[in-house]
Amino acid sequence: MGEFDLITRYFQRPAKRSPLGVGDDCALLAPAPGMQLAVSCDMLVEGRHFLSTVDPARLGHKALAVNLSDLAACGAKPLAFTLALALPGVDEPWLEAFSRGLFALADEHGCELVGGDTTRGPLNICITVFGEVPAGAALLRSGAHAGDDIWVSGTLGDARLALEAFRGTLSLPADVFAQARMRMEQPTPRVALGQALRGKASAAVDVSDGLVGDLGHILASSKVGATLDADAATGVIAAAASCGLGTEILRTCALSGGDDYELVFTAPPAARAAVEQAGRESTTRVTRIGRIDAEAGLRIVDAGGAPVAQRFGSFDHFV
Ligand SMILES: Nc1ncnc2c1ncn2[C@@H]1O[C@H](COP(=O)(O)OP(=O)(O)O)[C@@H](O)[C@H]1O
Ligand SMILES: Cc1ncc(C[n+]2csc(CCOP(=O)(O)OP(=O)(O)O)c2C)c(N)n1
Ligand SMILES: [Mg+2]
Question: Which ligand is nearest to the CA of 187?
Fold first, then answer.
């Protein structure tokens, strides 16, 4: 099978909402009047972002999910995406599963594939996603104020827990591993929550590199500091705690593990009921995990308010 047959068979579907989709030199998009285009791009590289043994359907899901997560963090509604793919060769069962996982998530969000690029090379997947948001209403990293609450969606640390189990640095009971693995391989982008938070949250970012690092982007952009509860938002990890894993490793996963694709956002205390309502509307758990301070820096405390001495880093491709 050649390049163009591959595209036609696995990636070309009739455009439904875009004026022009796959097959010409450009795609055409038509954002509604009064809306701004929100654009984001993330790449997944074999061995760095995913294990070579991953189920290709889950990989198709994740490649789009990490991009939809950026739209969610801006409060944007997904419209369309492009897919740049480097493949070592034509593996039809792999392409069938990858495209099935990809389109299942795309259809869930009404986000259509409008173009891309396909080349031979080491397996590499790069998606650019386009969304729309009412002009001036995008959630930014720069809007947090002293006194705001810090919230997080879902739970943190599960993906890193699974990665460490894959690496063999810790072991988990089969049921805990199965849950954590799903969170690593098929994250749920918080798209509905992001849109429901427009006009309520003062700042937002999605957690890809770990809570401490990504909250750090809000603090730097907003020129504020924060106090954070170390243990407020653990999920599968809470189950892992009962399997005898130490606090230090669990906190490392939750606070600097990365690959969470949850939203961390700030909102004034007066908006607490509105934030909880946004969580209910989007059937997404939201948890208050700290507050924004005027004083610069990040202070991490335990449930009793005592400072946590452990230091937390964040994912960086070059450090
Ligand atoms: N090669 C690049 N050229 C231009 N902008 C880039 C490049 N790589 C990253 N960026 C931009 O730098 C910022 C931080 O990137 P990143 O940490 O990847 O964001 P995110 O975690 O939201 O994916 C984003 O605004 C992104 O668009
Ligand atoms: C094989 C493998 N190694 C490591 C990780 C963990 N990991 C890889 S990239 C990353 C951070 C997010 O990736 P990045 O490219 O920085 O995304 P962005 O912040 O741009 O959204 C994490 C936690 C993984 N998921 N799989
Ligand atoms: Mg990125």
Answer: 2
Which of 224, 252, 270, 260 minimizes the C-alpha distance to 313? 252
Let me know whether 84 and 156 are in one domain.
Answer: no
Q: Write out the residue range of the structural domain in which residue 188 sits.
A: 149-301
- Report the CATH number that the domain containing residue 285 is assigned in CATH: 3.90.650.10
How would you list the strands of the sheet with 286-293, edge to edge? 203-206, 263-267, 149-153, 286-293, 225-229, 298-301
Q: Domain count of the chain?
A: 2
ipTM surpassing 0.90, yes or no?
Answer: yes
Q: Which residues surround ligand 3, an ion (CB under 5 A)?
A: 42
Of all protein residues, the one whose alpha carbon is nearest to atom 18 of ligand 1 is: 42
Domain membership flag for residue 185: yes
Within a domain: 312: no
Please give the Cα distance from 106 to 99 (Å, whole number). Answer: 10
Buried b (16+ CB within 10 A) or exposed e, 178-216: ebbbbbbbbbbbbbbbbbbbbebbbbbbbbbbbbbbbbb
> What percent of the chain clears pLDDT 70, i.e. is strictly above it?
97
